[in-house]
Design the sequence.
C-alpha cells in the first residue's frame, strides 16, 4: 500500500463524509456546506496527487489503475446525485454524465480483454475539471453567481458529450474487433 494508493483509498473514504455534510439538514446549513466543500476539495486534490506521485516515483500498481478511476467516479457521481437531491441539478443532467462513465468503463473493459489500454484524453481531463468546478460552484450555492454556475455546468455537460464521442471515435476498433 504505497502513498498514491493510500491517497486513492482516502478519497473513497471521504465520499460518505462529504455526502453526510452536504445533505445535512437538506443542505440548508451553510456551515455544513462549507465543510462539505472543504472535504470535496481535499478529495479532489488527492485525485490530482495520486496519479502524479505514482508516475513520477514509478509507483504505478494494478490496484491504483483499478481504484483511481473508480474513486474519481464515486466522488463525482455522489456529488452530482446529491445535487439532484438538493434540487440544484435536474436528474437528466446527472444521468447523461453517469451514462458516459458507464459507456467509457465498458469500452475500457472490452479493450482490456483485448490487451488494449485506453488512455485518458485531453477532452476527458477538461471534462473532469469542469465537472469538479461545477460541483464546487453548486456546493457554494451563491445566488449572485448563478449565471456563472449555469455556464460552467453547461460547459461540463458539453465536454462530457464531446469526450464520449471522442473516446468512441478513437476507439471504435475495440468494438468492431470482436466481429460485430
Sequence:
Amino acid at each position: 500500500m504505497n502513498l498514491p494508493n493510500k491517497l486513492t483509498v482516502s478519497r473513497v473514504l471521504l465520499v460518505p463524509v462529504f455526502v453526510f455534510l452536504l445533505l445535512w439538514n437538506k443542505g440548508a446549513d451553510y456551515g455544513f456546506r462549507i465543510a462539505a466543500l472543504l472535504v470535496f476539495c481535499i478529495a479532489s486534490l488527492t485525485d490530482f496527487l495520486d496519479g502524479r506521485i505514482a508516475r513520477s516515483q514509478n509507483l504505478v500498481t494494478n490496484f491504483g489503475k483499478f481504484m483511481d478511476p473508480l474513486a474519481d467516479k464515486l466522488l463525482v457521481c455522489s456529488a452530482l446525485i446529491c445535487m439532484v437531491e438538493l434540487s440544484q441539478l435536474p436528474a437528466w443532467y446527472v444521468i447523461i454524465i453517469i451514462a458516459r462513465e458507464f459507456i467509457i468503463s465498458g469500452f475500457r473493459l472490452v479493450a482490456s480483454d483485448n490487451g488494449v489500454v485506453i488512455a485518458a484524453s485531453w477532452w476527458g481531463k477538461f471534462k473532469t475539471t469542469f465537472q469538479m468546478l461545477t460541483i464546487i460552484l453548486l456546493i457554494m450555492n451563491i445566488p449572485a453567481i448563478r449565471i456563472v454556475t449555469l455556464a460552467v455546468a453547461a460547459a461540463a455537460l458539453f465536454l462530457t458529450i464531446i469526450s464520449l464521442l471522442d473516446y468512441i471515435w478513437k476507439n471504435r476498433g475495440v468494438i468492431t474487433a470482436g466481429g460485430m
